[in-house]
Amino acid sequence: MMRVNKRLGRILLAATVLSPFAASAQAQWPQQPVRIVVPYAPGGSADNIARRMAQELTSSLGQSVIVDNRTGGMSTIGMMEGARARPDGYTLVVNDIGFVMLPHVKKSLPYDPWQDLIPIGAFVFSPIGLAVNASSPYKTLGDLMDRARAKPGTVSFGSGGYGTSPHLASEEFALQAGVQLFHVPYKGGGEAMVALMSGTIDMQVSVLSTFKGAVDGGKLRMLAISGEQRQKMLPDVPTFAQAGLKGYDLYNWIGLWAPAGTPAPVVERLRTAVYDAMQQPGMKAYAESVSAEPRVVVGDDFLRMLKEEDAMWKRVIDKTGLEKQ
Fold first, then answer.
1. Which residues does UniProt assign to the signal peptide (predicted)?
2. In tens digits, what is the pLDDT along the chain, a chain of 325 residues?
3. Whether the bond into 110 is cis, omega within 30 of 0
4. How far is Cα 163 from Cα 171, in angstroms, rounded to an integer?
């Protein structure tokens, strides 16, 4: 009930400020710097992509767009900061695929992802790959799946922690392949990579950019990658379908949201700005430089994508029996 009352209060507040003066201000938005809250630490994939998008938005909006990192709570601290911000278009928040995963792995959230935030758009779609140590006996995805089927629970995979996107993407892989894997959670993605590089774990599932440098350096071997066709940055790596696993086609992405109650003209201008940013040659080149695809989805199409992925991850977590923490 408290959430409903707060929600109603925000809507009434938004309606109150829509005076002729406020409407004029909206038409001139933005009149001051815009802040994008990133719920992850500086230097990570989400942070880097958000900063690159902020550069494009700064150019198109005519005001500085700055990134503010608010970490903690598996991204809930930053998401709460964005959800509770004044709905005037000057505070936005980004997240990745964790946005649709988190409600299914945490017992409670300090915000409602569907009621407290307005989806702007998703951009820079990163393929998911499966990698093993270069000295691994698994030369193909078929080799690994055969071993996992023959001896359930003996093939290990690492992740940056329980409920992270690499963890859940690996669980979805196991479901699709019909195998049982052994999960080794680490305190972060960096530790998981060290374990993979040392051969402590057998495999890891993550975005392509996580592995590409080590693959190019001959330290890791990529067995498969998501997508309908091979990625031009690693043309020798088959898709999951080509490697014998149809239906496993995951991507990570970066999404942008505004607080509920943000005026519609501001929301629409943001959606247009994000879409236009991804049409710029520089932004397309940047996406490819981080081993991603320069795709963009905005507005209702973004919301529809979120709902579909939310349902998918609910199914995955229900089938695996993972408990909320």
1. 1-27
2. 334 344 444 444 444 444 443 455 456 899 999 999 999 999 888 999 999 999 999 999 999 999 999 999 889 999 999 999 999 999 999 999 999 999 999 999 999 999 999 999 999 999 999 999 999 999 999 999 999 999 999 999 999 999 999 999 999 999 999 999 999 999 988 999 999 999 999 999 999 999 999 999 999 999 999 999 999 889 999 999 999 999 999 999 999 999 999 999 999 999 999 999 999 999 999 999 999 999 999 999 999 999 999 999 999 999 999 989 8
3. no
4. 10
Q: What is 2-125+251-320's CATH superfamily?
A: Bordetella uptake gene, domain 1 (3.40.190.150)
Of 104, 164, 154, 161, residue with least CA distance to 128 = 164
Tokens of 140: 């193909």
What's the CA gap between 123 and 112, in Å, rounded? 22
pTM of the model: 0.88
Residue 235 in contact with residue 187, Cβ under 8 Å? no
Q: Alpha-carbon Rg of the chain, whole angstroms?
A: 21
| CA 118 remoteness from chain centre | 16
Does the domain formed by 126-225 have CATH 3.40.190.10?
Answer: yes
Query: Hey, is 316 helix, strand or coil?
Result: helix
- Domains of the chain by residue range: 2-125+251-320, 126-225
Residues 6+ away with beta carbon under 8 Å from 100: 113, 306, 309, 310, 313
CA distance 128 to 71: 24
Task: Give the residue among 105, 80, 78, 233 at the shortest CA–CA distance from 159.
Answer: 105
Q: Is 323 exposed, middle or buried (0-12, 13-18, 19+ CB in 10 A)?
A: exposed
